[in-house]
Write a structure and sequence with these properties.
elongated, alpha+beta, P-loop_NTPase, 14 helices, DNA recombination protein RecN
């Protein structure tokens, strides 16, 4: 495992397991830091990319991560695995190369399930372990038992010791019957001591030969397509790609030089441009002012017409009162009898009541007659004849407030407002007449300034237009050539990948045939392998100074015993050391004996229950130091374990392994990095 990269919508988060200076793989990598900072999440995400059923569902992960990438080596060749979070299709994307490589070979899609499919991720990983096509019995003790294909997930039981298995009483999955059966068979397969080996080899050879035939057909078809395209070889395509990239760089430099010359040549027109900007601004202001006055004028003209109509109505009301006297008497106000004559002023007195009047025109008008003293009467006659003052309905002279037909005040006010509106409208109309020519003049000045700028710059820029067009054509041709070269390289890479698949399958078939031929001659003794693993288990515990160590061994079912007691009887601290020693013994012996172990090991929380972090086991805290654990790893990795990889998650590793710490999460916002998702610090 070289790198883990988690990619989110805003940024990515990365952990490297290689030396930052040399780029070489670290044999031992320690992920250190505080609790709940994402240390175990690193291992869980790698496991997820290798086909695990689920990924860590912490809130910060859900919010910040969309895809997980793992850069790893398969048989010495770097590959990149990509898997999306919440992937409903259950597939990963695989491509040769490294995470930071640009456009490379095409991406290959690999399904997670079923693991026995030739195109699955499990089959690919098992192929690089030399275990592709292996079948596991559902009931190992029955000859006619059904079988299931070996999955890489079964193999991970020997590669990953998570926190929940450390110090567990179910180290060998005793509570999961089928998983426990598979684990024992997986160990036999890794050490090549499983039952019915010859039959299994024959079936694997048959399956691989079928796949080899299909791979050859696919390779020949791809080769024919590449030859028909006449793309040339990889060297020619790489040279074409490099030439196109160089041409694009040259074009970019020349384009920048032309832009600089154009800017220098057009610099003298700066004064014209400023005049044009000023003229344009003046034209905008004149247009805005004219538009404002025209809008006011359109609103005031209807209002003035309304006031003129009101004046006309009030004038007509006044004239109608003078022409048609509303108080001309035709009925006697006392008895309501129709008078047979017209009431006139006769001899300076009213012809009805004989009161003295000043007007001698002969016609009785409103306000000419003072109300006589009329005795109060009851009935309809008095109610009909009585006016607002209790008289005959003739109002006193000069009392205009009680005269319903006196509108002179309203008429004067309306005429005054009409005169003001007329003056304002006339002023607006005159201003609009003055502003319209000014606006047109501003527009003309702006157009003239723009023409001056164009005329001044055209002579300076025109010589460069042809050069720019030529550069554009060169850029287009170089881009097309680069794209063609990239497409060709992708096709060639795909062809090479198919050729490598054919070669790998052919090699696997030959190796299996040799194993089948020698199956009856040099079969490894299972009991001898168990004894070797058991001896290594006891030696590791002794190296760690396990307290009161005696009778440490593994039985035929790989169950560890210490002090002649099953490991489940040991204390919590004892179970921690036993589980670590158990998986390390299998890992070390497999690597040293040329077994089919993938060659990497993940260990989570090796100090669990030992007192240094959290819960303390009194029996082991004072006698066992974690330094002994790391000392053993260093000794083995630099000796017989060279070429393997161990990644450890540890809250507080000792100072002796400080150089092996690839990242340390502080859990504090003021000491970055806070954690794996380093911007989730709330």
């Amino acid at each position: 495992m070289r790198r883990l990269r988690l990619v989110g919508p805003e940024r990515h988060y990365q952990v490297d397991f290689v030396d930052r200076e040399t780029g070489n793989l670290n044999s031992l990598s320690v992920i250190a830091g505080a609790f709940s900072t994402g240390k175990s999440t690193v291992l869980e995400f790698i496991d997820y990319c290798l086909g695990a059923g689920d990924y860590p569902r912490h809130p910060e992960v859900i919010a910040k991560v969309l895809h997980a990438f793992v850069e790893l080596e398969l048989s010495g060749t770097p590959y990149v695995l990509e898997r999306g979070l919440g992937d409903q299709a259950g597939q990963v994307f695989l491509r040769p190369g490294m995470l930071d490589d640009g456009a490379g070979p095409p991406v290959e899609r690999r399904p997670i399930k079923p693991p026995g499919s030739p195109d699955s991720l499990s089959s690919l990983l098992l192929m690089h372990c030399g275990l592709e096509g292996v079948q596991l019995r559902e009931a190992p003790t029955q000859a006619n038992s059904g079988t299931d294909p070996l999955s890489f997930r079964d193999l991970m039981g020997l590669c990953f010791l998570p926190n929940e298995r450390v110090a567990s009483k179910s180290l060998l999955f005793e509570t999961q019957h089928m998983k426990a059966l598979k684990l024992r068979q997986v160990v036999d397969v890794v050490f090549d001591v499983h039952d019915d080996r010859a039959v299994d080899l024959g079936q694997r050879i048959k399956d691989l030969e079928t796949r080899l035939a299909r791979a050859r057909v696919a390779y020949e078809a791809a080769q024919q397509i590449v030859e028909e395209q006449r793309l040339g070889g990889r060297m020619e395509l790489e040279m074409a790609r490099d030439r196109a990239a160089e041409e694009l760089a040259v074009v970019a430099r020349e384009q920048e030089a032309i832009d600089q010359r154009v800017a220098a040549a057009a610099g003298f027109a700066e004064a014209q441009r400023r005049r044009h900007q000023a003229a344009a601004e003046e034209a905008r202001r004149a247009e805005a002012k004219l538009r404002d006055r025209e809008t006011q004028l359109r609103r005031m003209v209807p209002l003035r017409a309304q006031y003129a109509a009101d004046v006309a109505k009030l004038t007509m009301l006044t004239e109608a009162h003078q022409l048609f006297d509303p108080l001309q008497i035709k009925v006697c106000p006392a008895c309501l009898s129709t008078l047979g004559r017209t009431i006139r002023v006769e001899g300076g007195a009213c012809g009805l009541c004989h009161a003295s009047v000043a007007d001698t025109t002969g016609t009785l008008t409103l306000g000419d007659v003072a109300p006589p003293a009329v005795p109060e009467q009851s009935g309809a006659i008095n109610g009909a004849a009585a006016g607002p003052s209790g008289g005959t309905g003739v109002l006193p002279d000069g009392d205009s407030s009680l005269n319903p037909f006196d509108v002179s005040t309203e008429l004067r006010a309306t005429k005054a407002r009409l005169a003001e509106l007329t003056r304002f409208v006339d002023d607006l109309d005159a201003e609009v007449s003055r502003l319209r020519p000014r606006m047109e003049a501003a527009r003309t000045a702006e157009r003239q300034a723009a023409a001056e700028v164009d005329q001044a710059t055209t002579r300076a820029i025109s010589p460069y237009l042809a050069e720019r067009d030529a550069l554009a054509r060169r850029r287009q041709n170089a881009t097309a050539a680069a794209q063609l070269a990239r497409t060709g390289l992708q096709m060639v890479s795909s062809l090479e990948r198919r050729a490598n698949d054919v070669l790998r399958l052919d090699t696997s078939v030959k190796v299996l045939r040799e194993e089948l031929a020698n199956a009856g001659q040099d079969r490894t003794d299972r009991a001898g392998i168990i004894r070797t693993i058991s001896d290594r288990f006891a030696a590791i515990l002794a190296d760690w100074r396990y307290p009161k160590l005696s009778s440490a061994r593994l039985n035929d079912e790989l169950v560890p015993f210490v002090r002649d007691l099953r490991y489940t009887s040991a204390s919590s601290g004892g179970r921690t050391l036993i589980s670590l020693a158990w998986i390390l013994a299998i890992f070390e012996v497999s690597w040293e004996s040329g077994g089919s172990h993938p060659g990497f090991l993940f260990l989570d929380s090796p100090q669990k229950n030992l007192g240094q972090t959290g819960e303390r086991d009194a029996e082991f805290a004072d006698t066992v130091t974690i330094a002994d654990f790391y000392k053993h790893l260093h000794t083995w990795l630099t000796g017989r374990g060279a070429g393997t990889q161990i990644i450890i998650v540890d809250n507080a590793p000792p100072a002796e392994v400080e150089d092996d710490v690839v990242v340390r999460y502080s859990g504090r916002a003021d000491q970055p990095p806070y954690g794996l998702i380093d911007d989730a610090i709330a």
